[in-house]
Design a protein that fits this description.
mainly beta; 6 strands
Length: about 100
């Protein structure tokens, strides 16, 4: 599936990340950029020990203190480089599969 670049136009994808080395999985992670300025990205929460979708940019009504935070524990997260996502557990390059796309 060809996936257009995120940014500029309203587009979203759901992605799955999987590490071929240690088996870490992140499923149904939101990667989204919208007309209203809302943006989400796949990230790693060290406190929860799992992959999450985090809010990275907000529209005019978003509490800026909640950006780059885990939606579960509010801890700081590390955004995955989606060109070359590296497993936070073992350092191997993770495989990316796109499960859905919308615009």
């Amino acid at each position: 599936m060809h996936v257009p670049p995120i940014g500029g136009a309203a587009v979203g994808v759901m992605v799955d990340l999987e590490c071929p080395s240690c088996g870490l999985k992140g499923q149904d992670l939101l990667r989204y950029s919208g007309f209203s300025g809302l943006e989400y990205a796949p990230a790693w929460c060290a406190a929860c020990g799992k992959c999450v979708s985090t809010h990275v940019e907000g529209g005019w009504k978003v509490d800026r203190a909640k950006l780059y935070r885990c939606p579960h524990c509010s801890g700081e997260v590390t955004i995955f480089d989606m060109e070359n996502p590296v497993c936070p557990m073992c350092g191997a390059v993770m495989s990316v599969s796109y499960t859905s796309l919308w615009d």
